[in-house]
Amino acid sequence: MNKGESISALRKAVFLDRDGTINEERNYLHRIEDFAFIPGVPLAIRRLNQAGFLVIVVTNQSGVARGYFELADVERLHEHVACRLASEQAYVDGFFICPHHPEAGIGHLRRQCDCRKGAPGLLLQAAEQLHVDLSQSFMVGDKNADMEAGRRAGCTPLLVMTGYGSETARSIDPAIGRFASLVEAVDFILRQDGSESVTA
Ligand SMILES: [Mg+2]
User: Fold this and answer.
1) How many domains does the chain have?
2) Which residues, at least 6 apart from 12, have a Cβ–Cβ distance to it below 8 Å?
3) 7 C-alpha vs ligand 1 centroid, how far in Å?
């Protein structure tokens, strides 16, 4: 932070969906041994870190609501992701999880929440905690729910073709930017931002 810059100054962020955006899509992924980065993702995250973007993971984990696994399993997996990233000098500023589902949830996790993407709640929560300027921020994901959550939070949504992206591409607003993977989406973000003079 520069001298004189207020501690409360808002920061730009890149919100990242997890499954199909950061890691290979696996149905109800929760075991560390099933986790695999999509190629180039750790370096792409490092470039965002270096350019001064907050990197915030926002993920719907209805497997918790459905009783397939526990919130603790999700947290353990995220610790593993953080360790793997750290070994490549990259980091995530926050992981935000929606454990609910409106129909399939068990007990108190069955509810119409405001944090399950398409709703913008996870992004708004993160923005408040981490002082994010949503209007300068991006939401990158592979599903329509990611695009909706980003749009409703006031960010620029970007679609990746990994995960369910190529299916999603058929039905979304044609004005939304589409990228082969997070690597190309980050190229675009940093070009827009002017924070990397030469694109790697
Ligand atoms: Mg996804």
Assistant:
1) 1
2) 52, 53, 54, 132, 133, 136, 137, 193
3) 33
